[in-house]
Structures are given as structure tokens and as C-alpha cells.
Amino acid sequence: MDFFLQLLVNGVCVGLLYGISAMGFVMIFKSSSVLNFAHGELLALGAFFFLALITWAQIPIFAAFILTLIGCFILGFIIEKFFLRPLIGEKLIFVIMLTVGLAAMFKGLILLIWGGNLHTYPDFLPESLALKLGAIYIAPVYTATLVISIIFLVLFGLFFKQSSQGIYMRSVADNQKAALSLGVNVRRVFALSWAIAAMVASMSGIVLGIINGVNVHDLSSIGLKVFPVVILGGLDSISGAIIGGIIIGLLETFTGGYLSPSLRDVVPYIVLVFILLIKPYGLFGLVEIERV
Amino acid sequence: MGEILLQLNNISVVYSDVIQVLKGVSLSVEKGHIVSLLGSNGAGKTTTLKAISGLLKPENGEVTDGSVIYNGKNIQNQSPEYITRQGIIQVLEGRQPFKYLTIEENLRVGTATRPSKPYKQDLEMVYNYFPALVARRKSLAGYCSGGELQMLVIGRALMAHPQLLMLDEPSLGLAPLVVQEIFRIIKKINEEHETTIVLVEQNAHMALQVAHYAYVMENGKIMMEGASKDLADNPDVKEFYLGMAATGIAKSYKDVKAYRRRKRWL
Ligand SMILES: Nc1ncnc2c1ncn2[C@@H]1O[C@H](COP(=O)(O)OP(=O)(O)OP(=O)(O)O)[C@@H](O)[C@H]1O
Ligand SMILES: [Mg+2]
After folding, report:
1. What angle do CA B147, B153, B155 make, to 5 degrees?
2. Other CB atoms closer than 10 Å to residue B262's CB: what's the count?
3. Is the CB of B176 under 6 A from ligand 1?
4. A70-74 LR contacts (CB < 8 Å, sep 24+)
5. Fewer beta carbons within 10 Å, N or C terminal of chain A?
6. pLDDT tens-digit profile of B125-171?
7. Is this prediction's pTM over 0.90?
8. Nearest to B97 among A164, A165, A292 (CB)
9. Looking at per-residue confidence, does A289 or A195 come out higher?
10. Which residues of B touch A175 (CB under 8 A)?
11. Which residues of B touch A167 (CB under 8 A)?
12. Pocket of ligand 1 contains residue B111 by CB under 6 Å
């Protein structure tokens, strides 16, 4: 029973991270209908950027974390402005090929600078962050994950529900023509969704790097997990992405814990195929409102 | 003759480089007036509005000839972002709400041309015009009735403080009483805010009641124009757009109705 609860907690934590990073992917898709195949590389870039800041530049941990988030936010902006904007209005396949190309480029860049080996962050999380609930032990990194995830979710909720810019972003995702007719700056919305997606991806990259170590192949393959997550959650639902993420996180940890660690990366995809057979729009895909 | 706010000089509009829809349309809109644009399906009314608001571009359309002068400035083929910031807001045909946003969030999108300015007073103003929206402010627009949605999209446009408001068939598919209510409010907005309004309508009867001046379009050209009163008395207009024979008896009402029903499926 304790083992079960232990896995449950770990699974939820990792799943939250998957979910939050998938949220960025969904955001780009919702606002501009672009499937971003470079999502995993954005995760990896964030993790390595943070590594560079704390090991080479010796910047204090918290400052390095914030700097990474800001840096990746700007990077997202730049990617949109220089690579995607010229392709607005082109066929979807070109845009997808572009993101595949970006993925290769980022991965190559990381391999060039850091190589393909496993790096680790120095152990900076204090043991005092650990929680003991009865026999369950929550390691500091998982506590930190929970706290950071909740902070991000609350901030996102406020941004999209309360702020004008957040509401403009949702309006573009909802009905682009109507948004244009009211003067919403649609290009800025595209740029902002890339910026936010890159920032959130880097956050997930850093935390996953703390949990699993920093390796370009591992981190970018986590980017692929975005697909089972968003397909579970529905490609167009942000809260669905979070729930999808938690489900995939739980599946993985339980498979790793009870069956075999070598199966853990495969099972999500198997389950995914079954779910798609039953519910092709994902478990939480938006039900199209059809009464207008 | 008062000051001219908007002037179209002989404009041609072409979609996808080959499909010519407007063939030399000229019209002028006096400041503070309601000007109605009538015409049957496919006449080019919506295209005319889009040529003004800049919304042709996303549909691969272009003003190839002539000029659009607004407040003395040449604005043809400018981006919608630019044109909305000059004070022109088009309310699209078929209502087009943001279905997954609440009524109040929908209204807030109307502030896009002047972000980070206070908007609370404007919400009050819209709720004053459309009290029916207050009770539904927290519900998703996707679940609102057609009448509520028409009020919503007009209110959403008002949030932008438009100088020129262009309404594309606000009466489409609404019950007669609701249509009357909407037209009453359009008139009120025009009077209280001195908003200039371009009103595209199939419901010529209602449109001629509120408008000061009207144009009749057919096949991408202006066929007729005049003060609303004069047009309402014109025998041709009576026959084709008011559904009355010259004697004043309803004649082709059935045809009109049949075609309106078809239009809803579009
Ligand atoms: N994006 C487009 N590409 C090609 N042709 C178009 C496009 N939009 C409209 N048209 C054509 O232009 C003509 C005029 O269309 P428009 O929508 O302006 O008419 P309308 O007067 O608004 O009609 P309705 O009363 O049915 O709304 C139609 O024949 C239509 O098929
Ligand atoms: Mg039309």
C-alpha cells in the first residue's frame, strides 16, 4: 500500500510536469494551428541553458531559474518572428517541416556544445523540502515540482481568465476572423503563444533535469510524450492537457514500479492507441458547441 | 450637406486575383448618419464592408481600383489592425461570437484597439443598452440565443468606441420583435453617441425606417441611391425589396420568405 501511494505521488508530480509542458504545445496549436515538433528540443534547451548558468556562469540557483525562463520566453518570440511568421498562410505541411527542421537544429546545437552524455545539476535542493506523510517519503525534488507546478497553474489561470492580453489570446484561438474584426493583434498573439510555450517548456526541462539528469536525447524524447498527453487530453483543451499529463505520468510510474522499468516508456503509447480506438477525439477533447 | 466621413470612389474588388465582385462602387457616408446598403444575396454588400474594414486580405481579396477615403485618409488595402484603430469596426455577418468565452469576456475583446485602458464604464454602457446581457454575463456565448448573440456582437463593437460602426445583417434569422428591439437600439446608439453607422440589410423595410440615406446594390454595382423616405416610396424598391406590388399589397412575400429560410442554411 505504501509503495502504491509512493508511486501515486511521484506519478502525479511527473505527470503535472508533462501536462504543463503539453499546455504550451496546445497553446501554440490553438492559436495558430501549428503542431510544434520542436517541443522536446525546447525542453532540452531550457535544461541546458540552466546548466550553463549554474555551472559555467556560477549564478545563484534562483536567479538562474528566472533568467532561464526569461531567456526562453525571448527565444520563443524570436522563433516565431524569424521562422514561423514568414510561413503564415502557407500549407500546414511546410510549417510542420519547419518545426522538424528547428528540432534538428536545436538538437545539433546542444550536441555540439555539451555532447550526448548525461550531465547532472549540483544537488541544490535542501533536504528540508522533503515531506514525510506516514510511511510515504516525498523527495525534495517532488515537493519542489508540486509547488512550482501549482504556482504556474495559478498564474496561467489568472493570465488567461483575468488579463486582457490573455482574453485576446483565447479570442484568437476561438474565432480568428472575429478577433481580427475587433482589431486584436493576431501576430502578437502568435508570438506570445510561442514565447509562453518556450518558457513553460524550459521550466519542465529544468525540473525533469533535476529528476532524471540532463541528457539531450532523454529530454527531447520527453517532448514526444507531448503527443500521447495531448491526444489523451484533446488537442484543443488546456485543462485536458493537464489531466492527460497526470494520466501519462501515473501510467509510467506504475508500470515502472510494478511491471518493469524497461516497459515504462512504451506503455503510455500502447494505452494511447487503445484510447484513440475508443474515443478518437481524446478523452477531454472540446465538445463542439453547435447552436449558433 | 454635412461633413463626409467615409467615401468610396469607384472601387473594384477582386478575390483570388480573378474573381471580380465589385465593379466600380462609389458611395459616401455623412458623419452622424445611418446609411443603409440594400441588395439581394450575392450583390456584394459584405464585400463592400470588408473592403472598408480591411478584412478582405485574410480572404485573399483586394481593392484593385479606386480609393477608400476615411477622415481624409486613404485606407484601402490597409490591415484590419490599422483600420480598427482609426475607429472603424465591422460587426460580421452571422454574429460570430467567441463561443468558449463568457459574455463578459467577449465584450472585453472589444477593447483590443485600446488595451490597458479602463473598460469598466464601457461594460456598464453596453449593459445599459442591452440589459438582457447582464444576467448572462458569466455564461458561455456558445449557449446564448440568436437575439442575445446579436446584442453581444453589437455591444462588443461598442466597447471599441467606434466612430464608424458597420453592421452586416443584424436582423438575420431573428424573430420580428427582437429585430424591432435591435433596430431601436441601433437608432439610439446613433443618436446618443453620434456614431456613424453603415447598415447592411435584407430587411429593407426596417432598414429604411432607421436610415437617413440608402444605397441599393445589385451585381457588384450601385443601382439606386437616395434619402430613405424617397427610396421607400420608389415603386421599384417597393416591388423588389419591400415585397409589395405598386398597389401596396403584399405580392412576393412568399418568395422573400422562402429565400430567407434558405439563407439560414448557408
Ligand atoms: N472569399 C471569396 N472568394 C471568392 N468569391 C467570393 C468570396 N467572398 C464572396 N465571394 C463572391 O462575391 C459575391 C458577393 O458576395 P458578398 O458576400 O459580398 O454578397 P452579399 O451581398 O453580402 O450577399 P448576402 O446577402 O448573401 O450576404 C458572391 O457571388 C460571392 O460568391
Ligand atoms: Mg453578406
Report:
1. 100
2. 10
3. no
4. A70/A199, A71/A202, A72/A42, A72/A45, A72/A46, A72/A198, A72/A199, A72/A201, A72/A202, A73/A195, A73/A196, A73/A198, A73/A199, A74/A195
5. N
6. 999 999 999 999 999 999 999 999 999 999 999 999 999 999 999 99
7. no
8. A292
9. A195
10. 96-99
11. 101, 105, 108-109
12. no
CA distance A173 to chain B (A): 9
Q: Is there an atom of ligand 1 within 6 Å of B128 CB?
A: no
Q: What b/e readout covers A97-123, taking b as 16+ CB neighbours within 10 angstroms?
A: ebbeebbeebbeebeeebeeeeeebee
**Best residue for ligand 1 mutational test, from B19, B92, B203, B263 (most atoms within 8 Å of Cβ):** B19
Residue B52, amino acid: I
Distance CA B158, CA B181 (A): 17
Least confident of A103-107, A127-131, A166-170, A278-282: A278-282
CA torsion through residues B155, B157, B158, B159, sign = positive
* Cβ partners under 8 Å of residue B259, min gap 6: B41
- Contact criterion met (CB below 8 Å) for A240 and A228: no
- Specify the CATH number of the domain B4-96+161-233: 3.40.50.300
- Angle at CA B159, nearest 5°, toward B113 and A30? 60
Q: How far is CA B149 from CA B11, B93, B170, B201, in A?
A: 32, 12, 10, 17
Q: State the Cα–Cα distance between residues A215 and A118, nearest whole angstrom.
A: 5
Percentage of the residues of chain A whose pLDDT score is greater than 70 = 95
Contacts of B92 (CB under 8 A, 6+ apart): A177, A178, A181, B153, B168
Cross-chain Cβ contact B109/A179 below 8 Å: yes
For chain B of 266 residues, list the mean pLDDT of each consecutive stretch of 10: 91 95 96 95 95 93 96 94 97 94 96 90 96 94 94 97 97 93 96 96 91 95 93 82 54 44 38
The single residue listed with the C-alpha cell 458561455 is B140
3-class DSSP assignment, residue B175:
coil
Q: Which atom of ligand 1 is nearest to the CA of B45?
A: 21
- Residues within 5 Å of ion ligand 2, judged at the Cβ atom: B 46, 93
Q: How many angstroms separate the CA of residue B205 from the nearest CA in chain A?
A: 25
**Does ligand 1 lie within 6 Å of residue B50's CB atom?**
no
| pLDDT at res. B21 | 96
| Distance from C-alpha of B199 to C-alpha of B193, rounded to nearest angstrom | 16
Extract the runs of DSSP E, i.e. beta strands, from A19-141.
131-133, 136-138
Most confident of A50-59, A77-86, B102-111, B253-262: B102-111
Query: Hunting for cell 514568414 — which residue is that?
Result: A86
Q: How many CA atoms lie within 13 A of A71 on its CB side?
A: 18
Reading the block at residue B111, the C-alpha cell is 477593447
Query: Which residue type occupies B55?
Result: L
Of the partner residues A175, A185, A291, the one whose CB lies closest to the CB of residue B98: A175
Q: Using CB atoms, pick whichever of B96, B142, B146 lies closest to residue A178.
A: B96
Q: Which among A259, A202, A256 has a CA at the least distance from the CA of A38?
A: A202
Q: How far apart are CA A10 and CA B23, in angstroms?
A: 68
| Residue B218 grid coordinates | 445589385
